[in-house]
Structures are given as structure tokens and as C-alpha cells.
């Protein structure tokens, strides 16, 4: 397992410092809960693409998030996901963000997973299907420790041309996903046979991302173990 972190300038990606996301980040900071971008948004940034669907992960439980959003007058929509750890706040009646509590699988049957919440980012990353989907990005908007100063600082960040004042992200890559993405390599977290046995749909996701990530001239490249399992 790799446990590395790197810093990435987010100034080319405006969706990562929209006022709504900065406000949301400030609220989590105010209540002492860590919040990171997860999955596809991180993958897009590493491919130099603007993320359009930003999913977030946190150590806060759904109940803690609901209490926090109620205190801050943030409306919550799509309540069906809460049983699985996902809360969707609508910030300033403008932007929706899906935020999921870190989880660990305690029982799987190939179709459904019974989960428990955890505070361990590595454990959550380890339950994800592919290394390129197990990446997290902690967002930094300056040194502010509360909502008001965070929102004030973003105005200075946007107006400033100083590199050190730009919003930046801290990449957490526990399973070599960045290297796999650079090499256009699709690899499971852990043993492919075990991961597919836990959730049969993972083999479909493997081929989906293989088609998205692999260049056409390498479309037939697969590990023998994947072909045997599939």
C-alpha cells in the first residue's frame, strides 16, 4: 500500500472553488469534520479535466451532517441515501453535493454490502473497486479556521495572481492510483477475484473504465487474471 500525498494547484478548475463549495468546506471546518473530494472529481483533475460532478467524503456521520446543516440553515434533499451514508445538501439553493460518510464493508453477498461507518480514510479507500477510484483530495482555501474568514479568503484567492494564494488540493493516494492513471492502467484494489465476488457489478465497472482510460491502440490489454475472473 502506498501512503503518499501531493499538492495540486486547483486554480485551473473553477468548479473546485465555487462559492458554494467553499462555503460547504467552511462549515465542515467550523464543526471539526474533515471533508475531501473523492472518486471521479479527483480522477478528472489528474487527467487535466474540469470536474463537473464533485462527490465528497467525510468522517461525519449522516446524523452529524444533518444536525450541522440544520444549524447552518442548509437544506438537504434526496433523503433516500442517508441509510447508506450519503447526505445531499443544496447550498445557497444553487448547488447540490453528495457527501458520503467513510465506510467499511462488514458483509457482502455479490449484490449488496452491509456497511459500518469509520473514521479511517485508508479503510474506506480499500473498499473501493479500482485504484483510480480510491483517490481523495483535501481542498485548501487558505489558512482560515472558520466559515466567515474562509469565505473572505476565497475573494482574495480569486483576485490574486500569487501562486501561493491559489486554492490547492492535497492528494491522498493509498493504492497507487495516480501512477495507474498516468500509465492508463486499470487495476483493482486488492485481488480481482475477491473484489468481484464481493460485488459482481465491479467487473462491468472494470470494462467501463478500461474503455474510458485505455488508448485505442491498447484496447486489448488485460491482465490474465481479469479475463479468467470475467
Care to describe what's here?
The protein has 230 residues and is of the alpha+beta class. The protein has a single domain (4-229), classed as Beta Polymerase, domain 2 (2-Layer Sandwich), CATH 3.30.460. The chain has 9 helices and 11 strands. It has helices at 19-31, 40-46, 62-71, 121-126, 147-159, 177-182, 192-198, 202-213, 224-229, and strands spanning 4-9, 35-38, 55-58, 75-77, 86-91, 95-96, 99-101, 103-108, 113-117, 136-140, 168-173. A hairpin with a 4-residue loop joins strand 8 (103-108) and strand 9. Residues 144-151 and 157-164 have low confidence and may be disordered.
| CATH fold annotation | Beta Polymerase, domain 2
Estimate the helix proportion, in percent: 25-40%
Name of the top-level CATH class: Alpha Beta
Instruction: Write down the Rg.
Output: 18 Å
Helical segment count: 9
Q: Could you say which structural class the secondary elements and strand pairing correspond to?
A: alpha+beta
Mean pLDDT across all residues, rounded? 86
N-C termini distance? 25 Å
Q: What is the level-2 CATH architecture name?
A: 2-Layer Sandwich
Amino acid at each position: 500500500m502506498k501512503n503518499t500525498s501531493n499538492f495540486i494547484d486547483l486554480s485551473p478548475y473553477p468548479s473546485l472553488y465555487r462559492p458554494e463549495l467553499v462555503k460547504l468546506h467552511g462549515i465542515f471546518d467550523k464543526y471539526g469534520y474533515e471533508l475531501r473530494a473523492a472518486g471521479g472529481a479527483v480522477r478528472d483533475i489528474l487527467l487535466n479535466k474540469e470536474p463537473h460532478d464533485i462527490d465528497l467524503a467525510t468522517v461525519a456521520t449522516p446524523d452529524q451532517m444533518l444536525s450541522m446543516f440544520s444549524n447552518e440553515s442548509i437544506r438537504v434533499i434526496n433523503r433516500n441515501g442517508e441509510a447508506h451514508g450519503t447526505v445531499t445538501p443544496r447550498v445557497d439553493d444553487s448547488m447540490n453535493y453528495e457527501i458520503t460518510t467513510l465506510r467499511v464493508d462488514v458483509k457482502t453477498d455479490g449484490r449488496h454490502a452491509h456497511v459500518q461507518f469509520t473514521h479511517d480514510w485508508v479503510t474506506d479507500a480499500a473498499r473501493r473497486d479500482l485504484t483510480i477510484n480510491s483517490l481523495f483530495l483535501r481542498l485548501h482555501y487558505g489558512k482560515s479556521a472558520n466559515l466567515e474568514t474562509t469565505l473572505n479568503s476565497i475573494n482574495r484567492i480569486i483576485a490574486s495572481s500569487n501562486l501561493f494564494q491559489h486554492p490547492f488540493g492535497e492528494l491522498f493516494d493509498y493504492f497507487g492510483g495516480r501512477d495507474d492513471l498516468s500509465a492508463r492502467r486499470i487495476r483493482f484494489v486488492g485481488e480481482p477475484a475477491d473484489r468481484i465476488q464481493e460485488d459482481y457489478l465491479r467487473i462491468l465497472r472494470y470494462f467501463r473504465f478500461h474503455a474510458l482510460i485505455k488508448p485505442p491502440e491498447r484496447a486489448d490489454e488485460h491482465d490474465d487474471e481479469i479475463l479468467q475472473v470475467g
